């Protein structure tokens, strides 16, 4: 197993390529290997499995130490202590890393973070212990402690509280001495403070412990001599992947019973977690980061030109996309190509009126059929086509770039110095339609090299204006929405055809699987993880690109089931 | 002192209510003696101020709207620098240097090189060396509760989506991996963390609380120490880095500063309406506008400057970095009547020299406020500014070309014998690399080095600051 320390930053790979090409992107994510597309000959083919699929080989990828993200911290203190104040929002921002803010290689600890861990933990601890009723939630006996409680009774209660709370905070059974260590702290504080304050100190200490903040994985050796996460470590992997929080009691029980050191046991729990509504939150989080929809309620648009666009409409657009995806994945056909070409969406009365769809009443979102001559699938939803637009004018570059780079994992470099110096967005008066205004991109060979990978996609979406409404003309001139997906033979004539072409491209689905793998494993998977990534991509294709199957397969991959050899270390 | 105690009391009552348990780290104690000014000739405080997008070095009609006219000691400030007139005698306009070490993505390489003098790591990475403020903090930061303070207004715009990224990070740790340092963004959190103090009538309670905090940190320290010994080298480095930061906190509790004639809690400012983490909602192209937050930028900026100056005066820290935003600069300027973002005026919407000049002139006004505030802190015959070195810069010189030549740098203060009131042109010098300026700045702090950053872009101090 060849293992290398990855680059610190995932975005890196998007910016590092020196030239543009029209073939397949390098889906493995390595940035120093010539890209497969340069020969241009295998466009559109599913990649053949390389020398990866040898029976019995384990492709355990790196498992660098992961720290809870702010989202995970918030969820975890909610489930551990009932604190639903989102206290983790006070921490400094994560590094963008793999695009989901959970890239282990990008995480570092600043003075500010350590300071905030301390301050926030003390605030949480104070809240969790401020009344006898709240203390009673930590341990029943603690709610009854009063000044008349005998000291040995109080100490016994403190110990019971610690044994339970620490095990849940550390997400594993306590090791010898760990409870005593906390009791020592509690007793020392108790000398000069109240019982509640001494328990608060314990809570604050737990919340700053590395065992709480980090997902430490020691691993166990299985009967085949391979290293895999222990049952409790696996419970933690599963619960953070599907729910973004600590394990629930069922997972703890499964870990205790030993069922999580078998592939079948992991699968069973993964199925339970995915079926539980709590998984929807993480799926939403994933798409909020993948798609340009997280803040549609604050698009910058001229009020006189677009009086129909309001913050409320923006919020509804986001809800449309999320409701649609949730339905599609959990109740609908559930494949990524289906999501990209679904002939239906979800609207409520207000959004229906915005789209000009008749017959929808009420605030509740409901499923409606689309006029498939104008709309088809996720990429034609108002939020997705307007979220990539900068101002009052549509921009084929930003729309095309989103599809090419984010959805198809093509790496398109930014213009370099001398070219950038010449870059000027076109004057709005330089042409009636965007195709005219952006003509230089296809005419000037300096621009065309890269822009031919983006603009032909973006121009096909010109039937949607800057706030996502359908239009046939721009400034009185009929819109030519012909386009092309780079790497595919031929051209398309409508946005519908383009969306179908994108959905027909295996690269689109390989890219989707790659994003999920990066998100699930908390890193930017590179060359060393190629077999794992390809394995997931091939399985995804074999499953007809079924998204739930992909999510479950994430937990069946060697990257999830195994740890790298001890000699190589957790991070290496 | 009485003044401080009174105001502190009322503020705490207002902010915390009766319980008051949830105190932040109170670096500033009520009791005790103020520190005395440091002796010796070296500079004692270092401040960096970052503004995005350079300046208007060429307005398109051949006019340099930034460069002063005249000679070294007899010069007239340019339109953009005119607001600095009141502090001109403590200002050095450093013209003609080039950020040659800014190799990499245009904006990212610029902000990386500005304080590190290193090129961007391959594959769109971060810096390859520490930033100068961290190296200076190693010399003068020990003994302060906070070794170095990073703060930013309206940060994490555009493509970084509120997260740390080579596009917005200016400060880099002086450790093996040169980790980027996220700035503090929340003015209220900053106020509590820097100046959170207790009701003096409860001084005993305060001491107990500090003791409690020490006990907790001591426990946490041992947990990290124990874990560290079980890990592989890669993970161990992470845990050890975290432990280092915990030890800094522990040391800070032993290094608390006291209020004094020169050190008082700054006026608290209401910043409701300002969302410090609005960057998290940003879009790549700045299409998402948070008007309420953008409108509050001037108020928040001044409040942060007040806190920065007092943090220096109180010796809560000796090294501070202030960013007005990041290189994306994708926020609007409602108070200037500019409803597009800065990057739009720089080049996204064609280069707009008039609007850019408005923005840069406003930054000069704010910089004048900082320098004047520092100059109002009397350390006994001389001012805080006189002991300090304040370095003002950007990631590039001229927005549309992203040129790094003729960087619009300013130095201010009198630390280390620096002489202000000068316009230093470096036209035609053999090596205009700005790494040489970074070396000269280090020299002002008593560091005798003659190389900083990537040696390929460094030939020694520029030598004209003192």
Short description:
By secondary structure, chain A is mainly alpha-helical. Chain A is 47% helix and 3% strand. In chain B, the strands form 3 sheets. Chain B has a 7-stranded mixed beta sheet, with helices on both faces. In chain B, strands 1-7 form a two-stranded parallel ribbon.
Quickly list its features:
heterodimer, A: 572 residues, mainly alpha, two-stranded antiparallel sheet, two-stranded antiparallel ribbon, 27 helices, 8 strands, 47% helix, elongated, disordered N terminus, disordered C terminus, B: 466 residues, alpha/beta, seven-stranded mixed β-sheet, two-stranded parallel ribbon, 11 strands, globular
DSSP summary, beta strand count of chain B: 11
- What amount of the residues of chain B lies in strands? 5-15%
β-sheet strand percentage of chain A: under 5%
Helix content of chain B: 25-40%
- Overall geometry of chain A comes to elongated
What does this structure look like?
The complex is a heterodimer of chains A (572) and B (466). Chain A is mostly helical. Chain A contains 27 helices and 8 strands. Chain A has helices at 11-15, 70-81, 111-128, 132-138, 151-170, 178-190, 195-208, 210-213, 231-242, 249-257, 263-275, 279-290, 311-330, 336-341, 349-355, 382-387, 396-407, 417-420, 434-437, 439-443, 445-451, 455-459, 495-504, 506-521, 530-542, 547-554, 558-561; strands at residues 66-67, 214-215, 220-221, 227-228, 344-347, 366-369, 473-474, 477-478. In chain A, the strands form 4 sheets. Chain A has a two-stranded antiparallel sheet. In chain A, strands 3-4 form a two-stranded antiparallel sheet. Chain A has a two-stranded antiparallel sheet with strand order 5-6. In chain A, strand 3 and strand 4 form a beta hairpin. In chain A, helix 9 (231-242) runs antiparallel to helix 10 (249-257) and helix 24 crosses helix 25 (530-542). Mean pLDDT of chain A is 87; it is low at 1-18, 22-49 and 567-572. Chain B has 466 residues and is an alpha/beta fold. Helix content of chain B is 33%, strand content 9%. Chain B has a 7-stranded mixed β-sheet, with helices on both faces. In chain B, helix 4 (187-195) runs parallel beside helix 8, helix 5 runs antiparallel to helix 6 and helix 8 packs parallel to helix 10 (353-375). The longest helix of chain B has 26 residues, at 203-228. Chain B is globular and about 65 Å long. At the A-B interface, helix 1, helix 3, helix 6 and helix 7 of A face helix 4, helix 5 and helix 6 of B.
């Amino acid at each position: 197993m060849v293992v290398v320390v990855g680059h610190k930053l995932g975005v890196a790979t998007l910016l590092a390529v020196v030239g543009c090409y029209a073939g397949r992107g390098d889906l493995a994510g390595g940035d120093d290997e010539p890209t497969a597309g340069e020969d241009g000959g295998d466009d559109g083919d599913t990649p053949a499995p390389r020398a990866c699929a040898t029976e019995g080989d384990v492709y355990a990828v790196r498992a660098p130490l992961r720290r809870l993200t702010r989202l995970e911290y918030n969820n975890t203190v909610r489930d551990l202590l009932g604190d639903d104040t989102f206290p983790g929002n006070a921490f400094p921002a994560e590094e963008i890393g793999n695009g989901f803010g959970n890239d282990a290689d990008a995480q570092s600890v600043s003075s500010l973070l350590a300071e905030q861990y301390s301050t926030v933990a003390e605030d949480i601890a104070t809240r969790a212990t401020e009344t006898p009723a709240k203390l009673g939630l930590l341990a029943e006996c603690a709610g009854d402690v009063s000044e008349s409680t005998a000291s040995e009774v109080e100490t016994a209660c403190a110990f019971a509280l610690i044994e339970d709370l620490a095990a849940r905070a550390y997400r594993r059974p306590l090791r010898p001495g760990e409870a005593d260590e906390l009791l020592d702290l509690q007793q020392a504080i108790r000398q000069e403070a109240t019982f509640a304050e001494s328990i608060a100190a314990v809570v604050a200490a737990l919340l700053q412990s590395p065992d709480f903040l980090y997902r430490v994985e020691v691993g166990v050796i299985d009967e085949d001599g391979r290293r895999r996460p222990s049952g409790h470590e696996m419970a933690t992997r599963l619960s953070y992947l599907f729910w973004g929080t600590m394990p629930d009691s069922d997972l703890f029980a499964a870990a205790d019973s030993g069922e999580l050191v078998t592939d079948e046991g992991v699968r069973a729990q993964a199925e339970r977690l995915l079926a539980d509504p709590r998984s929807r939150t993480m799926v939403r989080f994933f798409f909020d980061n993948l798609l340009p929809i997280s803040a549609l309620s604050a698009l910058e648009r001229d009020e006189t030109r677009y009086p129909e666009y309001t913050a409320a409409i923006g919020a509804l657009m986001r809800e449309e996309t999320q409701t649609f995806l949730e339905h599609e994945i959990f109740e609908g056909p559930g494949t990524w190509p289906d999501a990209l070409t679904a002939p239906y969406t979800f609207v409520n009365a207000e959004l229906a009126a915005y789209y000009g769809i008749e017959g929808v009443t009420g605030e509740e979102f409901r499923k409606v059929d689309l006029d498939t001559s104008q709309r088809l699938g996720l990429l034609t939803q108002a939020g997705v086509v307007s979220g990539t637009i900068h101002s009052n004018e549509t921009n084929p570059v930003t729309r095309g770039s989103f599809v090419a780079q984010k959805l198809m994992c093509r790496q398109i470099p930014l213009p370099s110095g001398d070219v950038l110096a010449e870059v000027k967005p076109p004057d709005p008066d330089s042409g009636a339609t965007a195709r005219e205004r952006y003509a230089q991109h296809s005419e000037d060979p300096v621009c065309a090299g890269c822009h031919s990978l983006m603009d032909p996609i973006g121009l096909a979406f010109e039937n949607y204006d800057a706030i996502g409404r359908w239009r046939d003309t721009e400034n009185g001139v009929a819109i030519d929405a012909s386009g092309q997906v780079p790497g595919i033979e031929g051209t398309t004539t409508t946005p519908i055809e383009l969306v179908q072409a994108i959905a027909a491209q295996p690269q689109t689905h390989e890219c989707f699987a790659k994003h999920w793998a990066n998100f699930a494993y908390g890193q930017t998977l590179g060359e060393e993880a190629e077999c794992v990534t390809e394995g997931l991509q091939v399985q995804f294709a074999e499953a007809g690109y079924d998204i739930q199957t992909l999510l479950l397969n994430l937990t069946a991959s060697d990257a999830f089931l195994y740890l790298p050899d001890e000699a190589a270390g957790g991070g290496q | 002192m009485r003044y401080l105690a009174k105001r502190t009391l009322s503020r705490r009552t207002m902010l915390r209510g009766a319980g008051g348990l949830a105190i932040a780290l109170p670096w500033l104690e009520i009791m005790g003696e103020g520190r005395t000014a440091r002796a010796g000739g070296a500079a004692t405080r270092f401040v960096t101020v970052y503004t995005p997008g350079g300046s208007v070095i060429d307005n398109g009609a051949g006019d340099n709207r930034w460069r002063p006219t005249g000679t070294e000691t007899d010069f007239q400030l340019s339109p953009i620098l005119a607001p600095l007139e009141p502090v001109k005698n403590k200002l050095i306009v450093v013209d003609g240097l080039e950020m040659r070490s800014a190799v990499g993505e245009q904006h990212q390489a610029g902000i990386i090189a500005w304080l590190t003098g290193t090129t961007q790591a391959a594959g769109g990475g971060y810096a390859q060396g520490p930033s100068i403020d961290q190296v200076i903090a190693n010399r003068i930061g020990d003994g302060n509760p906070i070794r170095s303070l990073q703060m930013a207004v309206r940060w994490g715009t555009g493509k970084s989506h509120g997260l740390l990224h080579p596009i917005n990070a200016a400060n880099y740790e002086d450790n093996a991996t040169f980790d980027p340092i996220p700035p503090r963004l929340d003015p209220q959190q900053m106020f509590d963390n820097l100046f959170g103090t207790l009701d003096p009538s409860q001084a005993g309670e305060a001491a107990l609380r500090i003791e409690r905090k020490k006990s907790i940190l001591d426990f946490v320290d041992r947990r990290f120490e124990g874990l560290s010994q079980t890990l592989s080298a890669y993970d161990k480095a992470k845990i050890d880095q975290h432990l280092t930061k915990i030890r800094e906190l522990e040391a800070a509790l032993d290094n608390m500063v006291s209020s004094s004639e020169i050190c008082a809690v700054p006026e608290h400012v209401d910043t409701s309406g300002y969302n410090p983490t609005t960057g998290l909602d940003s879009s790549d192209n700045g299409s998402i506008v948070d008007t309420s937050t953008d409108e509050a930028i001037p108020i928040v900026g001044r409040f942060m400057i007040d806190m920065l100056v007092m943090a220096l005066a109180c010796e809560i820290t000796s090294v501070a970095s202030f960013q007005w935003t990041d290189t994306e600069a994708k926020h609007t300027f409602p108070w200037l009547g500019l409803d597009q973002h800065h990057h739009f005026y720089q080049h996204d919407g064609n280069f707009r020299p008039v609007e850019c000049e408005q923005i840069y002139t406003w930054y000069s006004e704010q910089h004048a406020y900082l320098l004047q505030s520092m100059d109002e802190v009397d350390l006994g015959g001389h001012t805080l500014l006189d002991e300090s070195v304040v370095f003002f810069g950007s990631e590039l010189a001229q927005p549309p070309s992203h040129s790094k030549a003729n960087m619009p740098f300013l130095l201010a203060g009198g630390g280390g014998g620096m002489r202000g009131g000068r316009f230093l042109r470096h036209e035609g010098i053999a090596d205009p690399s700005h790494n040489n300026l970074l070396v000269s700045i280090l020299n002002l702090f008593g560091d005798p080095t003659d190389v900083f950053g990537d040696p390929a872009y460094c030939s020694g101090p520029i030598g004209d600051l003192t």
